[in-house]
Specification:
There is one protein chain. The protein has 489 residues and is of the alpha+beta class. It has nine helices and twelve strands. The chain has three domains: 10-146 and 154-176, Beta-Lactamase (2-Layer Sandwich); 235-331, Helix Hairpins, CATH 1.10.287.130; 339-480, Heat Shock Protein 90, CATH 3.30.565.10. Pfam families: HAMP, HATPase_c, HisKA. InterPro entries: HAMP_dom (IPR003660), HATPase_C_sf (IPR036890), HATPase_dom (IPR003594), His_kinase_dom (IPR005467), HisK_dim/P_dom (IPR003661), HisK_dim/P_sf (IPR036097), Sig_transdc_His_kin-like_C (IPR004358), TCS_sensor_his_kinase (IPR050428). It is found in: Cell membrane.
Length: 489
């Protein structure tokens, strides 16, 4: 089932909230207007009906005898019905809480509350009721007289006669329905008109936001000269100024870091270059001394000292060579002398050259031809480094596996040691990084894996580190797979 996805952009939300606010304002205004207009219509009808009924009673009541009989009350109700005119009266009358006398049918029953209220107040009252699905207005008016059997001579003396008149409010209901229709018809144009300022406001708000987004994208792409023109005095302008300040600070920091990095690289290259010549002489001399120590003509203590000097000289020479190689990679001057070769052959030569082909700790799994176009010396450095690390820091057996997979040549070196700790895994290819801080002295320079990764990248390949399930650390070298060709005899 496909789920509907509604836009969630800031523009859509601004327009929607603006339209909701417009709709709420329009509905609130329409509601208040409708309420006032409805009240005005009903009050006008009520006042008109009360005035008409009072006028009719003023003309008809003087001719009524007291106390009136039921026939007199029915005759009065009949005359009031005929005199109702446009109101279509349905009249009835009662005297001294006697029975209610009416001359017509179809009128709603009089509410008891209305009869009680007019008796208690002694003045005209009204009430709206529902009858047969139609709204009705019911009026109750007591009649006073100026003379009678027990007249006191005072005006507005209650006579005991109460007249009731009711009529339907069909015309008023139609007028109110017309108000509702007009309000509903006006809501749609109001929303349509509200859409124009909503789009305009959204554009004004989102324009600086878009500029900030484009600026952030350029800044993330490395364009640290990016600046955005700040116009206005609102919060978005303050945000733009903050963005420009951040970009300027980043540019300054980046320039300082580049200067320091270039200085450190130049220093390492200069030191390695200056050490290379004296180390070559030291290595030559220690080679002669090694021969004297091996001949047995020197005292044992002197032989041990000579061997120590020879080992440290070779270690220092390897470190200087690694530093020189790193400086070449940093300068982009590392040469690549690629040849068409079988990766299995190169791995076999590497293992044989270092005596690992006869080592029970190392197992080679070389199945099927794996043609590559690579520099033999650099690939040899990568393989030797990975196998040597596996033997030093892992546990045997160390398995070297070469396969052609998914159009790539893949070489994996797996050991059965404890593996690489998760906190260390992201840093294994960093220069001079050592997982064990207490291990201040080691055979390597701390540059082996970094150089291995640089050599892999130079070939357009990758070098990754991880942990194999149930085994130990696993390093994977991938290189582009070259088309296979028949070697000349």
């Amino acid at each position: 089932m496909t789920r509907l996805r509604f836009p969630r952009g800031l523009r859509v939300r601004l327009v929607v909230w603006f339209l909701l606010a417009t709709a709420f304002g329009a509905l609130l205004t329409a509601g208040l207007t409708f309420h006032r207009a409805r009240s005005a219509i009903l009050e006008r009808t009520q006042h008109s009906a009360v005035a008409d009924l009072r006028g009719q009673l003023d003309s008809l009541a003087p001719g009524l005898r007291f106390p009136p009989t039921r026939a007199d009350l029915r005759a009065l109700a009949r005359r009031l019905d005929r005199a109702g005119g446009s109101h279509s009266w349905h009249s009835s009358a009662t005297y001294d809480d006697g029975p209610l006398v009416s001359a017509s049918r179809g009128a709603p029953a009089l509410p008891r509350e209305l009869r009680r209220t007019v008796r208690d107040r002694g003045q005209a009252v009204h009430q709206r009721v529902e009858h047969n699905g139609r709204p009705w207005l019911v009026l109750a008016m007591p009649v006073a007289y100026a003379g009678g059997p027990d007249a006191s001579g005072k005006a507005d003396t209650p006579s005991g006669l109460t007249v009731y008149a009711s009529f339907p409010l069909d015309e008023e209901r139609a007028d109110i329905a017309a108000l509702v229709t007009a309000a509903q018809s006006g809501a749609v144009p109001a929303l349509a008109l509200g859409l124009v300022p909503a789009l305009f406001a959204a554009r004004l708000v989102l324009r600086p936001v878009r500029r900030l987004r484009h600026g952030a994208e350029r800044l993330a792409a490395g364009d640290l000269d990016t600046r955005i023109e700040a116009r206005g005095r609102d919060e978005l302008t303050d945000l733009t100024r903050s963005f420009n300040t951040m970009a300027a600070t980043l540019q300054q920091d980046d320039a300082e870091l580049r200067r320091l990095e270039a200085g450190s690289r130049r220093f390492a290259a200069d030191v390695a270059h200056e050490l290379r010549t004296p180390l070559a002489a030291m290595t030559a001399v220690t080679g002669v001394l090694d021969e004297d120590a091996a001949s047995g003509t020197l005292p044992p203590d002197t032989c041990d000292a000579l061997r120590l000097i020879s080992d440290e000289s070779r270690t220092l020479a390897r470190m200087v060579e690694d530093l020189m190689e790193v400086s070449r990679f940093d300068a982009g001057a590392a040469p690549l002398r690629a040849e068409h070769m079988d990766l299995r052959t190169l791995v076999s030569k590497t293992l044989q050259l270092r005596g690992w082909d006869a080592d029970e700790r190392v197992t080679a799994d070389l199945a099927g031809p794996v043609p590559v176009h690579a520099d033999p010396r650099r690939v040899d450095v990568v393989v030797a480094n990975l196998v040597g690390n596996a033997l030093r820091h892992g546990r045997p057996p160390v398995t070297v596996r070469v396969r052609a997979e998914d159009g790539r040549a893949a070489l994996t070196v797996t050991d059965h040691g404890p593996g690489i700790p998760d906190p260390v895994l992201p840093h294994v290819f960093e220069r001079f990084y050592k997982a064990d801080a207490a291990r201040t002295r080691s055979e390597g320079s701390g540059l082996g894996l970094a150089l291995a990764q640089e050599n892999a990248l130079l070939h357009g390949g990758t070098l990754t580190a991880g942990n194999a399930p149930g085994a130990g650390a696993v390093f994977t070298l991938t290189l582009p797979l070259a088309p296979s060709r028949q070697e000349p005899r």
